[in-house]
Write a structure and sequence with these properties.
Blueprint (H helix, E strand, L loop, with lengths): L3 H11 L3 H6 L7 E5 L6 H7 L13 E4 L8 H4 L3 E3 L2 H7 L9 E4 L6 H7 L6 E5 L3 H14 L4 E4 L3 H7 L4 E7 L12 H6 L2 H18 L3 E11 L8 H10 L3 E4 L3 H5 L2 E2 L15 E3 L9 E8 L13 E2 L3 H14 L8 E4 L2 E4 L11 E4 L1 E6 L4 E3 L1 H7 L6 E4 L1 H8 L4 E2 L5 E7 L2 E9 L2 E4 L9
Helix pairs in contact: 5-6, 8-10
């Protein structure tokens, strides 16, 4: 049962479209995934795609699907795909992200929008932030599975980020915590927790986030604001408030393909933003998916604030370099020593000219492993992100990969040493080859049971 306060408001907002909107709640929610082109090209995935599905018209390399237990499939474990709600894809699809941009995803867990952005900004950096530690751990795991080398996950709030970073980001994504009205069809908890007071509290929190995080956007950069709710207070009124307070920003059109799949933003009494209809509303009775609101804001003027942070990345000692380089020389066909750094107790690979402030990062770049008595204990992310460059590769079929995911050993023909295990040519995890047998090093917490 939908809250009466919600339905009355939606009837007022939608007018003649209200009956179609309400009828959509009797339909089954749709599911979708995106191809991770960091791991496999779209063309190559389409040749082996076991999930089928119609392509999503507004999001590149994305499909609807109706496939049971897709999250247990080896292709999912290998990071070839990421499961994401189709309406949620519309936010990042609203802007063409350039490959050398620095991107901050402010409220990132579980990681869908960060991953969607990271696939595009291959030469920049993606800072993916989540304030709740348990959710940041999930976010970090999803980032690691995707095999990105240029990602940093952080765990802090907007105020702290604004204090640490200057105006260094070409794009800041704020998928703000909201009342979740757009998820009512698939999330009964969101329905039960809804109230006008909660909508008001969410709006207060959204204003706080935007007030701080605006400072880290470069002049000429973008602030992408989104929610999964329908309320004016959290959407158009929030955008209008922000633009009234910040004349250096302007509301600009989203990509045409997203515009065609969504409805115009809604004006209201007292609205000061003439072009508020450039905001986009994703409705389940217009396109397949749940609810989403998107507004693309451009920082047209002002100045870039410079700040010098205390970099958490350090250089390796000469002794550490010796056995780290020996390990990498034995394991990889190619790597750049200039990108080998130390973060906390981890040896990492971070191919970005970007300072990571102390005290906020969960992970940085690719965690190669930890030093233990002058040898390297490799991390799962090392195999996932750098598998293409491994000297020893063990390629498995889907059926064989499934057995590996249960923790079984596999046969191999490669020389003894650390090897990457692949499924249909894509890095899945690690193994230690010993005399024709590959000992399983897939993390126990990720294994199938």
């Amino acid at each position: 049962m939908l809250p009466s306060g919600f339905t009355e408001r939606m009837k007022s907002l939608l007018g003649n479209g209200y009956d179609s909107f309400i009828a959509s709640y009797n339909e089954k929610p749709v599911r979708s995934f995106r191809i991770n082109t960091t791991k496999i090209s779209a063309d190559n995935f389409e040749k082996i795609n076991p999930f089928g599905g119609e392509k999503i018209r507004y999001s590149d390399n994305s499909y609807y699907f109706d496939f049971e237990k897709i999250g247990n499939h080896p292709y999912h474990h290998a990071g070839m795909i990421y499961i994401q709600e189709p309406a949620a894809m519309s936010a990042v699809a609203s802007i063409d992200i350039q490959k050398d941009w620095n991107v901050l995803d402010m409220c990132a867990a579980p990681g869908g929008k960060s991953i969607q952005a990271a696939v595009q900004n291959t030469d920049g950096v993606i800072v993916s932030n989540e304030i709740i530690p348990s959710r940041c751990k999930i976010l970090t795991g999803n980032i690691e599975r995707m095999g990105f080398r240029n990602a940093v996950t952080t765990c802090t709030d907007a105020k702290r980020l604004s204090e640490l970073f200057g105006s260094v980001f070409d794009l800041v994504i704020v998928d703000a915590p909201c009342s979740g009205e757009g998820m009512f069809r698939k999330d009964e908890t969101a329905v039960n927790e809804w109230s006008t007071a909660n909508v008001e509290n969410c709006a207060i929190r959204q204003k706080e986030i935007l007030s701080y995080i605006k400072s880290v956007v470069k002049v000429g950069g973008y602030l992408l604001y989104s929610t999964c709710t329908f309320s004016l207070d959290e959407n158009e009124k929030m955008v209008d408030w922000f633009l009234t307070e910040n004349e250096d920003f302007e509301l600009v059109p989203v990509n045409e393909k997203v515009k065609d799949a969504t409805a115009d933003g809604i004006s209201f009494d007292g609205c000061k933003t003439d072009n508020i209809k450039l905001c986009r509303r994703f409705y389940p009775h217009i396109s397949q998916g749940e609810g989403q609101f998107v507004a693309l804001l451009h920082k047209k003027s002002g100045y870039d604030e410079c700040k010098k942070c205390s970099n958490s990345l350090t250089e390796l000692s000469n002794a550490e370099k010796k056995f780290v380089y020996e390990f990498l020389d034995d394991t990889l066909t190619v790597y750049d020593k200039n990108y080998i750094k130390k973060y906390k107790d981890n040896i990492i690979y971070f191919p970005c000219d970007f300072e990571v402030p102390k005290g906020i990062a969960f992970s940085c770049g690719v965690t190669i492993g930890t030093i233990q008595k002058n040898y390297i204990k490799p991390h799962h992310q090392f195999f996932s992100a750098m598998g293409n460059d491994f000297k020893r590769k063990i390629n498995l079929s889907v059926e064989e990969a499934d057995k590996y995911l249960f923790g079984n050993t596999v046969d191999c023909t490669c020389e003894n040493g650390w090897a990457v295990v692949c499924v249909d040519g894509v890095a899945l995890g690690g193994a230690k080859a010993v005399n024709g047998t590959a000992k399983n090093h897939y993390p126990k917490g990720l294994r199938k049971v």
